[in-house]
Amino acid sequence: MSTARFPTLPAAFQHIATVDPAAVALRTPGDGQTLTWSEYATRVREFAAGLDGLGVRRGDTVALMMGNRIEFYPLEVAAQHLGATSFSVYNTLPADQLNHVLDNAGARVVICEPQYVARLRSCGVELDHIICLDEAPSGTLSVSGVIAAARADFDFDAAWRGVRGDDVATLIYTSGTTGSPKGVETTHANLLFQVYGIAEVLGIEFGDTITSFMPSAHIADRLTALYVQEVLGIQVTCVADPKLIAPALADLRPTLWGAVPRVWEKLRAAIEYKAAAEPDAERRAALRWALSVATARGEHALAGTPLPDDLAAEWRRADELVLRGLRAALGFDRMRWALSGAAPIPPATLGFFAGLGVPITEIWGMSELSCICSVSPPAEVRLGTVGKLLPGMEYRTAPDGEFLVRGPLVMKSYRGQPDKTGEAIDAEGWLHTGDIVTVDEDGYLRVVDRKKEIIINASGKNMSPTHIENTIKAATPLIGAMSVIGDGRPYNTALIVLDAETAGPYAKQHGLADDSAAALAADPSVIEAIRAGVAAGNAHLSRVEQVKRFLVLPVFWEAGGDEVTLTMKLKRKVVAEKYAARIADLYREPPASDIREPADGPQPASTT
């Protein structure tokens, strides 16, 4: 395969589609649907001609609103071939948020599934066309209708060759933790530098396999399952329901895979649950033994210390008898490397998978940096770090500790917000990331926290709430989300919310008839499990970081709700305002009956 580099996504796609036209480019689990590169290229050409016939031109904006499905790809890539800015919106957005995103984007055309038509029409943004997959409700266009709109004299090759590297390829809307989402304008040049950069470090090859299961509005899915695919030729398996990712992985056995930390945590919890629930006593004992050996190996991996010869020998035996089969059952037996990003992952989770023989490369980046700015070569991973900056990127640290980055990954601008753009990118081209990051002597980065989220307690001690939360969440899969409180306070407390997906299996395993958030938050066994988990997490924290009291809220926090963004990032200001009365209860003397302390009963008066 040619190692030539291309200036735009369409140019790269036109090349990659000719490498092996009969190879499968897109599929669903079990090969329910497949699309070869030849078929893919034909559909791109047909749909680009149709969009042109509707009046879509270079610089126009086309939005997509649909699930993870094969049809998404040729539609999106077709819009790119016209020089249009194509982007995805989250399917869960209510009408008022749709109004903000589509209006800010200047979207003229939306391509969607029929169930979203009513919401699109009620959002208040005037659109030229709504194009529907599957079936076309009255007043919308079908895909076949769009294709029929093509002009006889449309010059497809001239259209895609007219796209320029500095054209805006896509918009990524920020998660909106501190206000309305901003539209990050990302160019073809940004994305090509991104794809070629990670390919150089990670060794991505034509025919590598990966899944698409996160929303396509999430930069991580767009990068790994769209842009990497059309530039490098990886095969993508579309998983329509993210809850079915486990069987999809077993079906595909991907060579590459990545997920956000919460998915890795859920996989870990599922493995541990399966081991504990194994009905055969002999098999259960073997699983527990192998996982204990894996844990010991993972601890050395986290510490960066050599594996003792006796433990190495025991791990090889555990691998031969149990772990190799476990990786195969998970679908991880062909995986060359795995990624975790979008938020810090608990070290214990990294250690767990390293012990299983599934090394996770933790990455760092942000939408404003085209996704991934730092990563480690798989053979040089240092667990707990987010690797090194991609070649061609540079950094410096501001006097207040904020990490600044400059280079070809930096976005063009925030759409329609020159003031916000000026705040983010200074006159010298440095992007102010908002993160506190340390860099060791070998260039490996460690993310401390967001600058605005650092806690300074009543004694003046600086702490990372994210680090505290991740350490405690790693101790129990029951915790879905938590918010550590402590800024200006004498000690740390936390609001804890149970994990909605773990709640059902937990209730079933423990014979609880009601698996609602309210019932579980009041159940004594759940409270004891959380108390034990907080205590276990505290054991890995310094005394000043430890959570002294907590409250289990009788609700689940849904993605895109009041408390967390669609990517499950905490809206700390909203949480502080919404739960102000309960936060005050956490510091009252004596505490209310539903305010708990960890199992080891720390003394709240301690501040050091």
Automatic annotation (TrEMBL):
Where does the record place the AMP-dependent synthetase/ligase domain? 13-414
Does the keyword Ligase belong to this entry?
Answer: yes
What's in the keyword line of the UniProt record? Fatty acid metabolism, Ligase, Lipid metabolism
The cross-references to PANTHER family, in alphabetical order and at most eight, read: AMP-DEPENDENT SYNTHETASE_LIGASE DOMAIN-CONTAINING PROTEIN, LONG-CHAIN-FATTY-ACID--COA LIGASE
Q: Name one GO molecular function term.
A: ligase activity
Q: What is this protein called?
A: Acyl-CoA synthetase
Cross-referenced InterPro entries, in alphabetical order? AMP-binding_CS (IPR020845), AMP-dep_synth/lig_dom (IPR000873), ANL_N_sf (IPR042099)
Family assignment? Answer: Belongs to the ATP-dependent AMP-binding enzyme family.
Return the CDD domains for the record: VL_LC_FACS_like (cd05907)
UniProt KW Cytoplasm keyword: no
* Domain of life per record: Bacteria
Gene transcribed to yield this protein? fadD11
